[in-house]
Amino acid sequence: MTAGIDLGHPQAQSVRSDEDVVRVRQLVRTVAVAVKLSLVDQTKVVTAASELARNTLVYGGGGSVEVATVENGRRKGVRIVFADSGPGIADLDLALTDGYTTGGGLGLGLSGSRRLVDEFEIETSPETGTRITVTKWSR
Amino acid sequence: MALSTEESGRLAALLSGQADRVTSRWTEIVTSSLRGRLSQAELRRQVQDLHSAIVATSEQGDIDLSADNAAELRAALADLSRGRARQGFSATETTVSIFALKDVLAELVQEAGGANALNDYVAFAKLVDEMGLFTFESFVRTRESLIADQAEQLLELSTPVVKLWEGVVAVPLVGTLDSARAQVVMERLLQTLVDTSSPYAIIDITGVPAVDTQVAQHILKTVVAARLMGADCIISGIRPQIAQTIVALGIEFGDIATKASLADALRHVLRLSGVETARRQPRRGA
Amino acid sequence: MERVPILKIGDILLVSIQVDMSDQTAVQLQEDLAERIVDTGCHGVIIDITALDIVDSFVGRMLSTIASISKVLDAETVVVGMRPAVAITLVELGLSLNGIRTALNVERGMELIAAAHADELDYQLDDDPDAETATP
Q1: Where is the STAS domain (chain B) (predicted)?
Q2: How many domains does chain B contain in total?
């Protein structure tokens, strides 16, 4: 994990409905613009956030998202934490495989969004649910 | 690290008591180190700015360079180092302007004498050191951002996207393609497709000496992205070595159109878009 | 819930997505569009996504589904106006939008539909005027 110092206050958004997923996208975009990510990088991190927030809603039964800015020397970035207290992911390796889905989707949510960000961490267990942390750095 | 309230009070008194003498002496020392590359008047102004920032800060009580009440002082120092970095001065030439204050202070403290003289001088010198380090830091930061800006400008210079025909744009790639540059070129190409409403793009890699897997992947992704947007890409000018690399690396070019030369690629595109090219007329007398 | 409007221009249905759609809005659009294709008997659908700053897998899947549904209903779907950053992101995400025709803008999309339709008419006139399924 890269050491980073938080700038400002992390923004929180609960994820309970479809509309909340839209709000997460808007929140992440605002922060991504603030840390001056390139347009392509903004698009990538917002898309990843959309996928992961939907996962939080659909598979985790709802949860919360926290968006913060991070800094590492000259580079700034966006760090997003998706947390739910759902059933967790039974087989992580399988879940990270392209095209694997238990929910009737395209199976690109986890595996695809991992490719869209620079850092991707996942903690999951049946007791505590799933917690995914992603970071996108400016270039 | 910081100066106590009494110490900074004495510092303020020393500096503001003979303000003119301090700035003159300070300017004098700095001038000799810069060998006339800045005018006396400009130096004097810079030194006066610093001087008043230090006095203002020390009059507020204890000085800690990292504290909130030293913001003005930090700004003055950053200002100085930014200016010097942009004018091409070295790090030494920049920080000497701060360290010169030590000599001035030594003279002043010696004259004033008193029981605290040694202690005071040590404390003041420490503060000057801190200021010097801070200046050095901001000097380096400015230089780094200058370099980053230049690298970016270079990137822009080296990636032209040209319109070849109505509805056809081309990127002639020249030189080594690293991942960052490949990415910039590709983004620019896709944006040009939108801006010019061109459904065809030719990526000419005649001038590219070698490609690695990552660069080949970038080109492939661009072709796929262009298709998603409703445009077709043709790759032209693949050198024999590059063709071998592509095959050896096992990169699938699939159904992407490749042509030997830019001219072939253009002819191919024109045929696709239904443009009739004039038949070659037999030359008279040839 | 917001609804995406569907406009009829000649023989074409034009859907210009202007809002950051929730998943529900996307599903609603899919249903509305199927209904409008049948009601109007249009043979072309243009979905303009110029205003969309992201397309995630859910919207991607919706676009594919719309294309498939309209194909069944004998209408050609063209997705137009995808932004470069969106296209780059989709490629990275691994979404290929199979079976969807795309064009740079509405104008080019209309040309594409007109061409497809003209081919079909030619084919019917040349070979068999009564042919129902004449897609080459």
Answers
A1: 158-269
A2: 2
